[in-house]
Amino acid sequence: MAAPLSELGGTKSLLDNMTLKFPHSLEHGNPSSPCFQKLKTKAQRALEVSSVNWKKTENTAAHHTSAFQIDKLVLRRGQIFNLKVTLNRPLQPQDEMKLEFSTGKNSSPYVELDPMTSFRSQGWQVKIAKQSGSKVTLSIISAADAVVGQYSLHMNSYNAGVFLLIFNPWCADDTVYLPSEEEREEYILNDTGYIYMGFAKQIKEKPWTFGQFEENILDCCIYLLDNLDPHELHSPVSVSRAICTMMCSVNNGVLMGNWSGDYKGGTAPYVWTSSVPILQQHFATKSPVCFGQCWVFSGILTTALRAMGIPARSVTNFESAHDTGKNLTVDIYLDESGKTIADLTKDSIWNFHVWTDAWMKRPDLPLGHDGWQVLDATPQEVSEGRFRTGPSPLSAIRQGAVQIQYDTKFVFTEVNGDKFIWLVKQNQDKEKNILIAVETASIGKNISTKMVGENKREDVTLQYKFPEGSPEERKAMENASGKHLDEDKPNHPSSHGLKIYVLQNSVELGYPITLTLVLKRKTEVLQNVNISCSLDLQTYTGSNKTNLGIIQKTVQVQGQESEVILNMDANSYIYKLGMVDDEMVIKGFIIAEVMETGDKVATDMILSFLYPAFSVEMPDTGKVSWPLTIKCSFKNTLPIPLTEIRFSVESLALSHMQSWEHGTLLPGKFIHFQMKCTPEKTGPRKFIVKFTSRQVKEVHSEKIVLIT
Fold first, then answer.
1. Is residue 229 annotated as part of the catalytic site, yes or no?
2. In 3-state terms, what secondary structure has residue 429?
3. Which residue of 33, 579, 598, 659 has the fewest C-beta atoms within 10 A of its own C-beta?
4. pLDDT (tens digit, 9 = 90+) per residue, 362-383?
5. Is 226 one of the annotated active-site residues of the chain?
6. Residue 569 catalytic?
């Protein structure tokens, strides 16, 4: 196996040590020798190439590309590869053996090499490694900054075929070089993983199949880069930005975003568990695939970057701000019952937002901005005329250096900012806005990605921001805003010492909503407190779908800490679960007012639904071409029927995701279902089994099955 250049002391020393020995009589030109006469006769024939053996097994093993399901040879730049060439006669010193590497639309030669004379050109090198009669083994190294994409090779006018050249995180001279082998295994070679969803206090993992080595995935990526000029294909900065752009159908790319709750004519975003069918369908049809939301955009972008050789990880930001005012604050306006006033509340906070980090050097920027860069394919923000975000360096985001390219201010506001809650009071036909809560640490929480080498969540928040409240964090906020934080900020609500928070994070589906509200005061005096709680059914982007109702209660409190129980009947939400084809949460705003003093305080909270148990039985092993049986059972604990039931199984062991429709499940009834699927690929393979319905979503189970 050929070793990477970094292990062999660099390109020059490797190839300079290779020499070609010709017969002694030929070198010293003895015209009377029979050997000379024989060779002279043969030399009069033009040198022709009869065949080229690309040594695919040997080269792909050395280049970590043998997993690609593709007929073409896939190579990584900056690393040696070998070709075995059969000629029409033995090679002579005066022969010309011209290698022309062409790439791009015009197919004009990009690099020309000749092992007999000009064996170096534009960072590429070639030498004869071995010769036996008319068979020659050539050792070639592409430049560590070579253009990526499809190449064709002609040798003395012989069409030797095509190969694909991608980035090389194993090569120390490549700008995507990643020193850690464990990280290369995770961020380049791992074809499954997790995307994190839910909200900051109730994080859920969604198994995701990246599948970067599957059929047509790399071809799709090369196709998506078709509009880049050759000089842009050198750099992971321009390539990653282009791939990010082309993930979105608004830019004539892969996936159509849809947050409407109506997904007729396509696939509901929560149904996807894999990038593979999306990229394969787009490559086959050259049309947008319907539909996706942020985690699907991150999934396909992570797949495409890993396929191209750029280390990538899917990252989730919880409590992610969309600051429409660009002032590093999120302002929420409530009426006196706690309901959000939609036409005043322009900013939004998404329960979570998912993007992709890519690893690369940034020679286009001042020093200090190499490493992880944010790329976001979700169509939120226009950057240089197209919907895309990044690459934006984590180092710049952390420091508040929002002028650093690309789109760093937008990402900074997603992970930083203060949340202001305003009470809008009606007073004789006039509205008065009273600031009743300021939260300086509620935006950008528990930023998460899959841990290297383990099926666990890693918290990477401190890679994006300094600890909340630290002097460094304050300095970063001042850098980003261009002024002292105290300027233009409204006065904080008076520090009367009244605080409230809610203990619960979830509600079991089908059961009443119970909230335990904790009131903290600085006094132990008996007081009367008015509490108003408004509950909404929301999607993860903070979009209100319906108000579930308002709970109002007046309680007497004594002592510095008191608990108040608020209840709402399950019927308030059960019959509304199927109103949109999205997974929903309950969002609540609570206002408390001390009647004796007029002191007010507010807080918000999220409740996720806990679904009934989903039982799945699967064998530990299976065989290629033999049916694998999966048994599922599920109980409907709701007092309403579950409709549009669907079971599905997805795995890289299978040719495609398989699903079965199962109609309706009545209240209180069990469903027992058996699925058969036939593996086509060997190895330890993850199987993801899902149960979905109109009312209940994101119920899944997973297992690794060894296929032999």
1. no
2. coil
3. 598
4. 999 999 999 999 999 999 888 8
5. no
6. no
